[in-house]
Design a protein that fits this description.
The chain is α+β, with helices and mostly antiparallel strands. It has 21 helices and 8 strands. Strands 2-3-1-4 form a 4-stranded antiparallel sheet. It has a 4-stranded antiparallel sheet with strand order 6-7-5-8, sandwiched between helices. Strand 6 and strand 7 form a beta hairpin. The longest helix is centred in the C-terminal third of the chain and has 35 residues. It is elongated and about 90 Å long. The C terminus is likely disordered.
């Protein structure tokens, strides 16, 4: 009697203890979570390759007298040609700007040959590296530089473009969080068909997101981990997407156990024992894949690795501790109106996934061949992906800075309008200046600031920005100038592209190796992990191919982000393997319980198919939220991952992996002990009753 009383007390105390610990953790994390936005940085150097010329230029410029320079171009344009009044207005406005702000040089107007445009390059080191001060400077220049009566005035240049990008990223936090939460809530209501149950995993995901913000801030302060608008947004997506997936698997198993176990506490313990290894392995693959991004040289990719890992691990901890505690405290009534009564059996009905498994099991090789052909054909669409994206094409709607760049490109086709920056040792600045002026493709070069042993030289190319001619000029300067660095917006785009290609060669093998090792440890097999990895790689290729078919023709995008291939690969491989783990782990569990290979595969699909489909829909929907963001790179990344998750959920897992498992039978578990169990006669195996 005493033992029973002690056990009852423990059942009551443990959930309350877990809840109390979480309240304490949130109280500690709250001051740090609120500060994450303060350390978010979206300067060019936060995205550039760590070792590239353009990064060295940006970092050295910070150390020159006055610090980082904010460069702008004020563009005055009238279609019929500028009038004398227009030119007077322009001169007066520029004089007001120069009188209000500390400029590095007196602005000089440069008229276009057709007389329609007048541009004034304006540069100031007044803001330094302070992004808020930079934005205030750019917006103040825009307030002063006004047109009217047919005169258009636009402010472009690197500083204005950075301000427009910063405003976009700063506007993402609220809408991204609210939209993601709303999408997840809607799907959970449809999945659970309960007016209460959906609130629990959604609230826990929100708490995990808040905790992840505090941990991310701690990483920034303790280890200097970079935090950008892109990486913090992806972290939120991962918390809600991956966290809800883990919740779906746990709640499904918990509901199953409630029908067999009388007390909710004991049912939850059984559910955690049953699905815990799969959830742990699932989160482990995602974390391992994301941490491989630490090997990337691209700052934006390398910073995304730790933040994404923080998001996944916070979601894991919350879903395996806080969610079970709340569910146990609420009891069976949280499932109302579909309450799983003790001793009851679920309503018998024809399962869609049983039917799909049956069709895949009858002709497994035919299904495999057809699926492989389909995925291969879709992957060919990647050949139609547009080339590298230009700065002016990174926004889904054109801000003022992009409009200014387009006006400049049309009015000054004979010359560059966006300066390149050369940083050279001061003791050989004169020699470097002469070498620059002798370089083919250079229109002009002007010596700028000096300090800390370095000198800044501003260079204008004869070719328009980010054109083939300007690219050739940048490469010629880098080949000619020993000991100097060539940077600027156009050079940054070249470095982004080259570094992304380099990172792919290093990170992709690391991701594949880490995921394989985790799968081999979980499944005690070599064949099954290879099958799962091959499947998700095929899904990635097909999803990228679909992107190639729609980005240009349908969405009208002029280019793709250089990091799209690598980031989409990491996310799709790491996240896609999740569903393979759910399926294979249940398949292995059935085999260990004595089921023959074919029934084990079909039962695993029947029992996990609904959960996998629900989890896939939620994860795809959370990443699809990115397609509503105003940055092309976010739209492309969200689209490819969402499409890939859907392909993985409804084609690869249900048909191809199941068909492969049926075709391979016990060979699927080679060289583990399950592969050495006696194989039934084929005729007998075919007569096995199909699970319903």
């Amino acid at each position: 009697m005493g033992a029973a009383t002690t056990s009852t007390r423990r059942r009551r105390a443990v959930p309350w203890l877990v809840l109390g610990l979480w309240i304490a953790v949130l109280a500690l994390a709250s001051p740090f979570a609120a500060k994450l936005s303060d350390v978010q940085r979206d300067r060019a150097v936060d995205y550039l390759p760590a070792s590239a010329d353009s990064t060295q230029v940006a970092e050295i410029q910070d150390r020159l007298p006055g610090g980082e320079t904010t460069e702008m171009v004020v563009v005055y344009h009238r279609d019929g040609g500028l009038t004398a009044t227009d030119k007077t207005t322009a001169a007066e406005q520029i004089e007001r700007i120069a009188g209000t702000h500390r400029l590095t040089a007196d602005p000089r107007g440069v008229p276009s040959q057709d007389g329609t445009t007048l541009m004034y390059p304006v540069a100031s080191n007044e803001p330094g590296t302070d992004e808020e001060a930079r934005d205030a400077l750019v917006n103040d220049v825009r307030d002063v530089a006004k047109g009217g009566d047919g005169l258009s005035v636009e402010v472009g240049g690197e500083g204005a473009l950075a301000t427009d990008a910063s405003e976009v990223y700063n506007s993402l936090d609220g809408p991204l969080l609210y939209t993601t939460a709303a999408v997840v809530a809607l799907l959970l209501i449809l999945i659970y068909r309960s007016p209460f149950l959906w609130l629990v995993p959604l609230a826990v995901a929100g708490i995990a997101d808040y905790l992840s913000m505090g941990v991310a801030y701690g990483l920034n302060q303790g280890f200097g981990t970079s935090v950008s608008g892109q990486s913090s947004g992806i972290m939120t997506i991962l918390v809600f997407g991956a966290g809800t997936d883990y919740a779906l698997l746990l709640v499904s198993r918990y509901r199953e156990e409630l029908r067999r176990v009388e007390r909710p506490y004991d049912a939850m313990v059984a559910a955690l024992r049953g699905c815990g290894p799969a959830v742990l392995a699932s989160s482990g693959t995602v974390a391992a894949g994301l941490l491989c991004l630490l090997a990337a040289d691209l700052n934006s990719s390398r910073g995304m690795g730790p933040l994404g890992t923080v998001g996944v691990l916070c979601a894991l901890v919350a879903m395996l501790t806080l969610l079970p505690a709340i569910l146990v405290l609420l009891g069976r009534r949280v499932f109302w109106p579909l309450v799983p009564r003790y001793g009851s059996t679920p309503k018998a009905r024809r399962s869609l996934f049983a039917a799909m498994g049956s069709s895949a099991g009858r002709r497994p090789l035919t299904v495999l061949a057809g699926g492989a052909v389909l995925l291969g054909a879709l992957a060919l669409g990647a050949l139609n992906l547009p080339g590298g994206i230009k700065q002016e094409d990174t926004f889904t709607s054109k801000p003022d800075a992009v409009t200014a760049m387009e006006t400049l490109a049309a009015a000054y086709p004979e010359r560059g309008t966006q300066p390149l920056t050369v940083i050279t040792p001061t003791d050989r600045a004169d020699t470097t200046l002469a070498e620059i002026q002798d370089t083919r493709g250079v229109d002009s070069a002007e010596r700028g600031r000096s300090g800390d042993g370095w000198t800044e030289i501003s260079v204008l190319a004869t070719a328009p920005p980010q054109s083939t001619g300007e690219t050739a000029t940048i490469e010629a300067l880098r080949d000619t100038l020993d000991g100097s660095y060539v940077g600027g917006p156009s050079a940054e785009q070249i470095d982004l592209k080259d570094t992304s290609a380099r990172d792919s060669k290093i990170v992709v093998p690391l991701v594949l190796a880490s995921v394989l090792l985790i799968l081999m440890g979980l499944l005690r097999s070599l064949v099954a992990p290879l099958l799962l990895v091959a499947a998700v790689v095929a899904v990635w290729g097909a999803a990228l191919g679909i992107g190639g078919l729609v980005f240009g023709p349908v969405f009208g995008f002029e280019g793709t982000d250089p990091g799209l291939g690598l980031l989409s690969f990491v996310f799709l491989v790491a996240l896609g393997v999740d569903y393979g783990i759910f399926l294979m782990h249940r398949m292995r569990e059935e085999s260990l319980n004595g089921a023959e290979p074919v029934p084990a595969a079909l039962t695993a699909l029947r029992t996990t198919g609904g959960v996998i489909a629900s989890a896939g829909l939620v994860l795809a929907a959370t990443f699809a939220v990115l397609t509503n963001m105003p940055m092309v790179q976010l739209v492309e990344l969200g689209f490819v991952i969402a499409v890939g998750v859907l392909l993985d959920t409804f084609l690869v897992r249900t048909y191809l992996v199941t068909s492969a498992a049926v075709a391979l039978r016990r060979k699927l578990w080679w060289p583990g002990p399950l592969s050495r169990a006696p194989e039934p006669e084929p005729e007998r195996a075919e007569r096995q009753p199909e699970p319903v």
